[in-house]
Write a structure and sequence with these properties.
Helices cover 11% and strands 34% of the residues. By secondary structure, it is mainly β. The strands form four sheets. Strands 17, 18, 19, 20, 21, 22, 23, 24 and 25 form a nine-stranded mixed sheet that branches. Strands 1, 2, 3, 4, 5, 6 and 7 form a seven-stranded mixed sheet that branches. It is elongated, with a radius of gyration of 39 Å.
């Protein structure tokens, strides 16, 4: 990674430090030499040997000029670092002592030759190279600065950056879902529309059998969930109420008390009650409790639901008190007990992976059978004879399967 600095003097200071360290470590007998970043003309009267590393020229690096360095998007100038190549004039001056001049130059050139790639310890770097300039080029250079020519060399440093004054923009995560509404009017003040429902599922440790696959269908919700409902124009007065029904035009309940503070003009939260209507009863109905498991339509409206806004949702039974790890163990008699809510007698299927269990005719199920209590809150079963392994519990009520919960280990 290239080095971004607030000013170029930091680069010059690092180069001078390289030369100074090389002089201390050199096998050449010690002599008086001063290393600076001054222009050659200004140090010729300072005495002793003067080794000058003067920043002679700064130019744009053509390869980095239009390339976003830290961001895939194009950046404005204040957000983009200024990429530069630096050209230094390295010269030695010791008045009449040519040997000392050549010794100082030898040490400096050898130091740059052995360290062509500079690292500052923080993962940032730049390259150092000794340029191959002809005597004609060097003569024109010395004539341009109006100083008698002395022993010198051109050192190139690249690529360095002047740090930008503004940080690059923070990228949003890539989209994970796109919604298409046919005929929907998305303009402000238009008829409200519902597009989707998002819910959160925690996979127990270890996760369900691999691979995890996505199945097309309505989102599956359970009692106690908090869900995010998305659409358009949901802040309008015509979308003030929330309704839940079996189908557009059929029986429905107003469940506006489930609605929480809006997340945005096009999103709001619904917090579902934790308890379900008791099997075979019609009260208390939503919004006090959850309806029986099944597929429903979620709608918004004002005095009545707007059928055009309906989106399907699937309500599953709720399995409670799932441990972590979620291994279900039997009691001393081999009976497995599952607690929750919304288990409908006569409409519930139980399986261990692909091995289905059958409803029992009595209060004490035999191996491979299960029973449900009258309140729909407890399932008890005894597992059939199975091969050793791990079997994940599957509960389906009214055609809607519960999210992953328990598993059974067979030794």
């Amino acid at each position: 990674m290239a080095w971004s600095v607030p000013d170029l003097s930091a680069i010059t200071a690092e180069l001078i430090t390289i030369i100074q360290n090389a002089i201390v470590a050199s096998t050449i007998p010690p002599f008086n030499v001063t290393v600076s970043g001054s222009m050659p003309e200004t140090v010729r009267t300072a005495g002793h040997c003067q080794l000058s590393l003067y920043l002679l020229h700064v130019g744009r690096d053509p390869y980095w000029r239009n390339t976003p360095r830290d961001n895939p998007r194009a950046l404005t100038n204040p957000q983009q670092a200024l990429s530069l190549n630096l050209t230094y004039l390295l010269t030695a001056f010791a008045d009449k002592d040519s040997v000392v001049e050549q010794q100082a130059m030898s040490i400096a050139l050898h130091a740059f030759h052995e360290q062509p790639l500079f690292h500052n310890g923080g993962g940032e770097e730049f390259t150092i190279s000794i340029e191959a300039d002809t005597i004609d080029e060097m003569s024109r250079l010395w004539q341009a600065i109006a100083v008698p020519i002395r022993l010198s060399s051109i050192i190139k440093v690249s690529v360095v950056f002047i740090a930008p004054s503004l940080p690059p923009p923070t990228l949003s995560p890539p989209p994970r879902q796109a919604n298409l509404a046919v005929g929907a009017d998305l303009r402000p003040g238009a008829v409200p529309q519902l597009f989707d429902v998002a819910t959160h599922i925690d996979f127990v440790v270890p996760p369900p059998p691999q691979p995890v696959t996505a199945i097309a269908g309505p989102p599956v919700l359970t009692g106690g969930d908090t869900i995010l409902v998305g659409g358009s124009s949901l802040d309008q007065s015509s979308a003030a109420e929330v309704y839940l029904g079996r189908a557009p035009g059929g029986p429905f309940w107003q469940v506006t008390p489930w609605r929480q503070l809006p997340v945005s003009p096009n999103e709001f939260l619904l917090t579902l009650p934790a308890t379900y209507m008791a099997p075979g009863t019609s009260t208390p109905a939503p919004p006090v409790r959850m309806p029986p498991p099944g597929v429903y339509q979620l709608m918004v409206g004002r005095a009545a639901p707007l059928p055009a806004t309906a989106i399907p949702i699937a309500i599953a039974a709720h399995v409670s008190n799932v441990a972590n790890p979620a291994v279900l163990t039997p009691d001393s008699t081999g009976l497995y007990i599952i607690t929750g809510d919304g288990f409908t007698p006569g409409g519930t299927g139980v399986a261990l992976d692909t091995v289905g269990l059958a409803p029992a005719g009595g209060p004490d199920p035999a191996a491979g059978f299960f029973i449900i209590d009258a309140a729909g809150q407890t399932i008890s079963f005894r597992r059939p004879t199975l091969q050793p392994g791990r079997y994940f519990l599957r509960i389906r009520v009214s055609g809607v399967e519960c999210p992953p919960s328990w598993w059974v280990d067979v030794p």
